[in-house]
């Protein structure tokens, strides 16, 4: 998905009109339209404001990652002593084979949780 599609989808899902976003960014409605139609890309300052407005990362908007949360979310405490950033850094240090094992294990845990939820309902 390209920048324009991501911007349009975020705006639509949150029920924000082009006019509202343009007012927040202090730009014209036609600028928003040109972003959504991939005619132009915003400058860095505007890109940062768009990311902040929608609570997503600039990397997500630029298609560098599908991780949608803003960078501030990496400081979120997942467990008593581990942040998202701590866990991501640990994963990055693993060998590619071990990362694949981790992904398989995560899928197994998710399937187990899903199965447990079905039994409880």
Short description:
By secondary structure, this protein is mainly α. The protein has seven helices and no strands.
Write up what this structure looks like:
The protein has about 120 residues and is mostly helical. The protein has two domains: about 5-70, lambda repressor-like DNA-binding domains (434 Repressor (Amino-terminal Domain)), CATH 1.10.260; about 75-120. Helices cover about 65% and strands about 0% of the residues. The protein has helices spanning about 5-15, 20-25, 30-35, 45-55, 60, 85-95, 95-120. The two termini are about 35 Å apart.
CATH architecture of the largest domain: Orthogonal Bundle
Kindly name the structural category: mainly alpha
The average pLDDT value, as a whole number, equals 90
Give the biggest sheet.
none
Order of helices and strands: HHHHHHH
Note the overall shape. Answer: elongated
- Assembly annotation: single chain
Unreliable residue runs? none
- The level-1 CATH class of the largest domain: Mainly Alpha
How many structural domains does the protein architecture include? Answer: 2
Helix content: 55-70%
| Number of helical stretches of at least 4 residues | 7
Radius of gyration: 19 Å
Strand content: under 5%
Question: Characteristics of this structure?
Answer:
121 residues; mainly alpha; 434 Repressor (Amino-terminal Domain); 7 helices
Explain the layout of strands and helices.
Elements: H1 3-13, H2 18-25, H3 29-36, H4 44-54, H5 58-61, H6 84-93, H7 96-120
